[in-house]
Amino acid sequence: MSDEFHKPTKFSGGKFETFKGGEDPAQISRVAHETANALLARVRNDPDPEVVDRLVAFTDQNGIDAIAELWARANPKSLPGALWRIYLIRLLIRQDPEGTSFLFQRGTEVMATIDPVVAGASMPTGPTEIIDLADRILRGVFEGDFAVALDRAAAFCRVTAAGCTSVADDLDVTEPERASELTTRALRFTKTAEELTSCARLWRHESLE
Were both Cys, which of 79, 82, 116, 188 would link to 36 (CB 3.0–4.6 Å)? Predict the structure, then answer.
């Protein structure tokens, strides 16, 4: 992932790495946790629909820069780390709804788990349905069960990872470079799913900070 964002920022499907560097890691961590806790507490205590709408659509008007500056370097298994990943997933979906919905739909066809149900996308899943899923997951962060929102995002990642792997297998002989890219993306989705699942578990134990 690039060390700098420029509005409007564009991400490829594989860009899940967090930022590196920083003058004062302790201060960066403190600001990340303080802002994440303050935002979530304020909105969840009074989930005004207009405020939630603005937060869901924040990156559409403002790019990802401000959120990345606050939360991208946070520990993956922390509140700011979880929020960063939810916003990043939504951005990735909205930048390529056709490609993402294709990979997600493929994942639903090859998986034998309940992850497609947990994710909660309408079936069959096209671009409109995958965008709606991204918005509903993020909205759930602010006005629903926070752990459930994280579980849904993790399920989305696992389903999409399965889709990436399946398509990579199809392309392994004819388009090996594309197959390798999809395999790498599948690994990143899988890692993100593990991180979000850990965050959901910590939240349920009142230990996500």
Answer: 79
Exposure pattern of 95-113 as b/e (b: 16+ CB <10 Å)?
ebbeebbbbbbbbbeebee
The answer to the question of residue 129 being in a domain is yes
Task: Answer yes or no: is 185 within a domain.
Answer: yes
Residue 156 sits in which domain range? 23-209
Q: 146-171 and 79-95 are packed helices; what angle lies between their axes, rounded to 10 degrees?
A: 50
Cα–Cα distance measured from residue 131 to residue 135, given in angstroms and rounded to the nearest whole number: 6
Q: Is 45 contained in some domain?
A: yes
Let me know if residue 10 belongs to a domain: no
Indicate the angle between helix axes 49-56 and 25-45, nearest 10 degrees.
Answer: 140
CA 152 from centre of chain: 10
Here the tokens at position 110 are: 């090859």
Distance, in Å, from the CA atom of 193 to the CA atom of 201, rounded to the nearest integer, reads: 12
Q: Which residues are within 8 A (CB) of 58 and not within 5 positions of it... i.e. 6 or more apart?
A: 67, 87
Number of domains in the chain: 1
For 130, what's the count of Cα atoms within 13 Å in the CB-facing half-sphere? 28
List pLDDT tens digits, range 110-140: 999 999 999 999 999 999 999 999 999 999 9
